Amino acid sequence: MSKRVYVSKAAAVATVTVAALALITVIGMIIFHNIRTKECPHLLQTTFPPTTTSTPTGPPPDMRLPGDLIPESYKIYLQTHLYLNMTGIENQNFDFTGNSTVKFKCVNATNTIYIHSKGLDLTLIGVADEKGKEMATHQVQLVEDERNFVTIELVDSLRVDGLYYLSTAFKGQGFHQSGLSVAHYTGEKNEERFLVFSQMEPSDARRVFPCFDEPAMKAIFNITIIHRKGSIALSNMPQKDQVEMDIDGEEWLITEFHPTKKMSTYVLSFIVFNFESKETNYGSYTLKTWARPEVVSAGLVDYAHSITGNILDFFEEYTGIKYPLGKLDQVGIQGFEARGMENWGLIMYSEGILTYNEEVFTTTEKGIAAIVIAHEVAHQWFGNLVTMKWWNDLWLKEGFSTYMSYLAMDRVEPGGNMKDLISVQEIQATLGMEVLVAEQHLTTKEEDIQSKSDINSLYNIIIYNKGAVVLRMIAEFLPEGVFQNGVQSYLKANQYSNAETQNLWSHLQMAVDNASFDIAVAEVMDTWTQQSGYPMITINTTSGEVSQEHFSLDTDKEQTNRTWKVPIKTMKSDSEVIELFLLTVEGPVSNPAYLCNENEWILASVNYTGYYRVNYNPENWEKLLQQLETDHRKIPTRSRAQLIDDAFTLARKGKVNRTLPLRITKYLLKDTEFIPWESARKYLENIILMFDRTEVYGTIKAYVRKLVGPLYDHFENFTWNSSIPDSCTAQLNQINAVKLACAIELPKCQKMAADLFEQWRKSPTTNPIHPNLRPTVYCSAIASGGELEWDFAWEMLQTSPINQERERLMEALACTKHVWILNRYMLYALDPDYMQFIDIVPVIGYIAKNVIGHSLAWDFVRSHLNSTKPPKMIGFVLIDLISHRFSTEYELQQIKEIQAQEDGKSYGSDILEKISEKIRSQIKWMEENKQTVSQWFQKEASQGSSPE
Which top class of enzyme applies to this chain (predicted)? Predict the structure, then answer.
């Protein structure tokens, strides 16, 4: 839509006399409440001379506001014209209208006001000082570029410390996925329903109203929403008042909210909808969880609602600061693109996050819901109460909330060691990803982050996951309670304001000094936040030396001049005392504590507290192996997971013997803990993926059967009874045991799956299979079955009303071993009478995971790559999925042929080049490892029979 700025006598008069749908309502509110006129009565009568057309002096030289003006408060009146119950989206009214008055302070003399606006039809009402004196306007211009500046050049300069008011009227459309958005869904009786909601982060408040749209420009917001009668309006704060008004024969509600706390524009929020809620009054605040009426009545928000109160209690206790807003609304929205958005006092989620039914959802799905809720609630303190000064310090809110969500999980799910999951879900994931992604620092200079694309690029695994694990690293290295004391000090000193990374280090340093602990926090942590990558720590127990080097799988990216100040926690086999050491140089550095006699071993990064990899001299690795085999419990659970992950990665790099990680897995015969098994499972599945088309797959399968057999037996009584253990981590490991056992065709697992599936097939209305087991049971039964089992699952896919169940069945249908059925399934995926267009990618991807279907999927994609069904971009996505198995020169040549056809065209060439790099890496790995790995598996498989 066109973007215009008017300023004239006619426009000013029209703003208060004829803009009926937007501003008559506003005037009614002004008269009824006498709010605006008390503070700024002149604005309703002010007129201005016409603007000139000469070119203004121009915006600041960069993307940032100049900082001459600081907002103090806004009064915003917003009218949404959306019909919540409307037949046909083409008849819908997506317009919104309103006006805004921002009160601001001048801190540097200037005659130009810069304010953000994007995609709005804007009318300037006027500018006045605190006494009501009009400020004559010279010219106004909207800059049509990424800066989104409205520049208002005044005849006279604004004086330092003076207070001023800028009033505007605006109109926009709410069909964007940012700013003001519209969601479309089907009601309980299949009627079309709509809702309108805001999504401001990171810089889209300017799409809704003119504002100083930077996180440091905090202000108080006075929000009034005008919406159709019969709808509900929510905003950040509790409702203050509501009146009805007739406008052009229609009934409208005018809902006014209490003033907000001082906060940033990106967490300003509102929603207009027709949902219902579950409510609990906790005394100092009221919690409401909103969703579609049928979802609430079915009890599907009960779990999310119950844990949110516990999570809020945890953060109040941990931070020492009470939740300050008096209410918290959380809303589940179908089609919400993000999992969650932390708007202060009005958190919005994808509906699936807020809904849970133990009869349908898995423990994994339940855990995702809990961790996302904990993350968004954490933001009420880390991000909303204390906000980063600029987006270059985004990690201060996202890294903190990611880390803190794991601590909160222990409160929500006690007894399950949920906070330990950070080891495999964050540390290992980030260590694995950071060596693959482009180099990025946790924090950068402000001037390096300017445009919206710069800001958006920060929302990635480094900011969230690495931010979390480096915070955990320093928290675990400091004496107990010191990190929490520092965090409390940081939050209290900066509440309702903004902070930079160095502010956090300063408050942690004060807590460290009070505890008489010797560490320079900023000097240590800057090495982790201001440079990318991570080190490999090498300990030699024969010489007692320790050293570090930048770790990278790509030799060309290794940088020998990069060092970190590394907090290291160690323990020895003959002692439970944990030693602390700070490695500050590349080394090697001698440390007598690291010397071991012939019967001792040493373990570093105890409990997996460090964000780095650890290597040892061969003698120490051998002693650790012996300890795992004799009594693995003497090595902490999380450290066992680290040993597995580090050994596999170091072997890939050539830093340890290629068979070392495989030898470590042997001890798993005796381990039933989730975290070590999860660490190993990922590597075992990758080995299977690399070898399941080769002549040695049989011996690999025999070894994995032998390995997983005892773990499957450990959970067998639960599995046969389709029940689960009490502990969440035990539930997750039961899933691992059944999934891996059935994948390598352990006979007893196959029989269990076939029997449970047959029970369901004979009584389709009663599914006896526990949700945790359904993905594996469905897949295994269809794989060992035939057309009868496949057709039953297909029928269940067509009739199931539950998305999660449909996704499980969709994946399981690709497990069949019959090529003709797989071929039919692919044709179904392309036929709109059978499946939706969005199902094409997952269906072909699932078929490609099946070794029987891999070639079929690859032939399908190549034959359709140049057609319009599916579109070409989908073809490239599918090539990426299918190529995970590619490890031969012939397969690489096939990709090169497609590359030659693209010849540098747009996105396709970039995707194909990354795929080629991946395949070259896999070819190299097979060349270097196939013979050694094959011989090892053959030897191990021959030493014992596979379990039945």
Answer: hydrolase
